[in-house]
Amino acid sequence: MIDAFQFEFMRNALLAGLLASVTCGIIGTLIVVNRLVFLSGGVAHSAYGGIGLAFYFGWPYMIGATSFAFVSAMIMAAVTLKSKQRADTIIGVMWAVGMAIGILLIDMTPGYNVDLMSYLFGSILSVPQSDLIAMASLTAVILALVCYYYKDLLVMSYDEEFARVRGIPVRALYFMLIGTVAVTVVIVVQVVGLVLVIALLTISPYIAEKYTRSLLQMMIVSSVLGMVFICSGLWASYVYDLTSGAAIILVAGIGFFLSLLFDRIVLMQRRKIWLKAHGSR
After folding, report:
1. CA-CA-CA-CA torsion for 245, 246, 249, 251, nearest 10 degrees?
2. Which of 29, 34, 53, 188 is paired with 215 by a 20 to 30 Å CA distance?
3. What is the tally of structural domains in the chain?
């Protein structure tokens, strides 16, 4: 595997994976704790409209996808705040319409047939250096925002009413959180694609939540798990010539089921100890 890093595309892939791990670990934690998985799925799939827009008008991919995903995310955030009962329907519609717009614009792009699969299932091996710079800049912005508003996000995530009583601007924070989800999705799309992005955003934080005692610990453990999953998936895709995005998610999925198995074994052991202790009385 070390020989593979003599190639620039492998070094870029590793750096892209590490950046995605950090953003997924931090924002994925906030998504899981605030139960925003479905909304994040809507943002991820509607971002495809931005990819289509970028190709149709000849804009850089990151600008088109980030702008479109951000606007879609703001609309979804407003809908979930104003009409919670119908929010899932509206998010579902925007999810489908965003993808439809993207596909149609790419179809209409003259003289250029883009590989749809690379955006649906990721193409981490083809991330150029210019996109790496953009990914690093966006990751730095997300890190700065989360660090600055960490205490407010912590209170809002676990007790929204208490946060309001303390004068924390919950509404503004919620919009900011959904906006960072949109930016994160665009960063991660190149690693695992639109279809698999939610898995990478949620599996690591879900596992981390069970073995940590604070939001900060959860973010750190989740980022480390993401790095392990991405590096392992990248190694498997290189050695066995597999699709990198699918290999990364499969490794994460194995980690998820192993954590469930571990929990089950621990539970059985505790039950045995309890039965032994009460049976001996």
Report:
1. -110
2. 188
3. 1
